[in-house]
Amino acid sequence: MSLSPNMHGTCREKNMHKKRKHRRIRLKELGFPIETSYWRPGEDYLKKIIEAAKKFIEDGDLIVVSEKALSVALGNIVDEEKVKPRIVAKILAKYWIPYFWGYILGPLCHLRQETIARLRSYPYREGSAHKEVALRYLKPIYALHWGSEGGIDASNLPYAYVSLPLKNPERIAGEIKEEIEKKLKRRITVMIVDTDKTYSIRRGLHLSSRPSQVKGIHSFLGPIAYILGRTLRLKRRSTPIALAGLSLPADLALRLAETADRLRGPGAGRTVWDMAEHFKTSLTGVTWKMLDEVPHRPIVVFKLSKISKRKVYSTEKFMLTKANFPTGGKSIGSVKNRKSHSGDKWKKDTKKR
Prior knowledge:
By secondary structure, the protein is α+β, with helices and mostly antiparallel strands. It has 13 helices and twelve strands. It has helices spanning 5-21, 27-30, 45-53, 67-73, 87-108, 113-120, 124-137, 169-184, 223-231, 250-264, 272-279, 288-292, 343-352; strands spanning 22-24, 31-36, 62-66, 77-79, 161-163, 189-201, 205-208, 217-218, 235-244, 296-302, 312-314, 333-336. The radius of gyration is 23 Å and the shape is globular.
């Protein structure tokens, strides 16, 4: 039996309507960075997080917090001006970084020419103290990395201070989750992240150059993971180091961490060199006051609550299982009848509350 023209038109309209109803969610549409003042040592980070995010958090949301901001607030920092380097640290700063990284590993890892030039002129005095900190506080293998050794970070910190990786990030993530649920009566998930990259071989093997307590992310290779990842041009994303709440697949946790990092921005600079150029000063000439003037976004809220109660369809790229989702939502992939939700509109909505 042949179909009439009207029936053909009706079928086309139904198919177009189905296509319009189903749209893949992009994580950046769900994530919103929250700007706060710069967190100094001794800050009550729990109070800071609650005050900054209390108007925005709902049941089922994911709260991403910067590890560096937490380390600074906890006083987990070292003044390298007061560090006396030993002979091994001096050798690393004088020969290993400028020659081995500057002429062999740097080009092999496809580093930018600007970065390679900086490594070849690696500062001996500051570099020796920095390598001594890596040798003293972490495993010796991390000191072989040219920068961000095992999570040690000097960017967005004043003078010669560096932040150390958190000793027990899972406990801290749990404390943040408990405090938010206690004070705000919201069931949420907390993720602590670092900008250091994890390198993925397809979706099965995730290698990080720094320690992580997230299941499925392997950090036993240390800086070798960085060399392999950069040399082979593997997919690289920011590293989630601890989770409290949802049990997320490693690949999804990595996607959330990378999206959060991009939404937060670089602050005063990605590296200590970038920071010094930003403020037009020396590597150790940045002050607390200078950093106070830069926008800081240590928190990103992912509004998973916006989609948890809607009918959704699972995909390979973005999936949360019903068992893992705190509000009983089904798998997340494409949302039915979901309107576009821009950051500006979301901010206006929250102001009305």
